[in-house]
Write a structure and sequence with these properties.
- With 154 residues, the chain is α/β, with parallel strands linked by helices.
- The chain has one domain.
- The chain contains six helices and five strands.
- Strands 1-3-2-4-5 form a five-stranded mixed β-sheet.
- Helix 1 crosses helix 3.
- The protein starts with a strand and ends with a helix.
Length: 154
């Protein structure tokens, strides 16, 4: 299942305050590796300030659902306000969480290098391309046979 949240950013919040709001949204007492979220702050503030996440989401995978976060900028951010609807689960509670963030093509190299060293659970991708993390693996669906006559036999 995919859940969507929109978070007001510039000028309602600074890019750092926007990242802090995202971290608050996706973490809880049972979160794993939250130090990586803090270590990625400066890199992700740069990505948020470039406003690519207004049209290409920040994707958080963890738990049963996938969270897509869009940032809202300009007059729309001021109108949206600072409230953020809470989640019904903690996407960073398991050891399997990961985040991908859109950025400009020119920034992919340095941001990827910095994140690999500081926060390997977080990756960036060119905002004009679909991230690899957003591609679902092919799943085999089990065939189910229903015995419609079973109801009649009861």
């Amino acid at each position: 299942m995919k859940i969507r949240r929109a978070i007001a950013s510039l000028p309602a919040r600074t890019s750092k305050e926007t990242w802090e709001a995202i971290v608050k949204l996706i973490t809880g007492a049972d979160s794993v590796d939250t130090a990586q979220l803090e270590a990625a702050t400066s890199v992700l503030c740069s990505a948020i300030a470039d406003e690519h996440s207004a049209s290409a989401p920040i994707v958080v995978k963890g738990g049963a659902s996938r969270l897509v976060i869009y940032t809202v900028h300009g007059a729309d951010a001021m109108e949206a306000g600072l409230g953020v609807d809470k989640l019904s689960w903690n996407p960073t509670a398991s050891d399997a969480w990961a985040i991908t963030v859109p950025c400009s093509q020119e920034d992919v190299g340095w941001m990827s290098k910095a994140l690999k060293e500081r926060a390997p659970r977080i990756t960036v991708h060119d905002a004009n391309e679909k991230p690899n993390a957003d591609v679902e693996p092919a799943r085999k669906i089990a065939e189910v046979e229903i015995d419609w006559t079973a109801m009649e036999k009861a």
